[in-house]
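On clarity, I found the account of how folds are encoded harder to follow than it need be. An entry of this sort, consisting of the sequence and the corresponding backbone structure tokens, reads as follows:
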Amino acid sequence: MARITKKRKAANQKVDPTKLYSLDEAMGLIKEVSTTKFDASVDVHVALGVDPRKADQAIRGTVSLPNGTGKSKRVLVFCTPDKEKEALDAGADHVGLDDYIQKVTGGWTDIDVVIAMPQVMAKVGRIGRTLGPRGLMPNPKTGTVTADVAAAVKEVKGGKIAFRVDKYGIIHSSIGRISFDANKLTENANELLSTLMKMKPSSAKGTYVKSVTVASTMSPGIKVDARSIK
């Protein structure tokens, strides 16, 4: 069993595991209890009362965080030659088609987001077994299959993130870094959570948002009162 450090013990003592904190309180506290020397990610975990096996309850979508993510996303764009310059000018890190399909087939996945034009999806589909399990497969629902690749790249670079419910009905998403001001973390978290609220399926019965927890890398989890979401 791993030994708990003094810093982690002190951090644990600051968090009341029986209390539901407001979103503002949680984001102020998360900065206090961070024990890492690096700029840790701040993550939100939302347990939803949905059955992900049902198509209409398999929650997935995108949200543009008002203060960005604090991390530069590496973007690969699959497009026709006439759109390559537009994608590069918009900030894409990698642009092409056959050459990158071959590269991914060889095992390369050093990217965070993949965007593709509808015209090339037949080719991109061939590498679905590699991209799919890593959450990289382009999808119209997340705006990553589009003819306007330049706009899609700008959105991703500007703080647009994709989310999807896992098989346990939980959404896991990074909403910033520990170096962010607490109010910026609150704004980002609220944007994600309010978006999820609006996506409640009509077929979902009972409590929709079962729990909300925020945590940074190697910090204790802080439970959030869902009623504090604006």
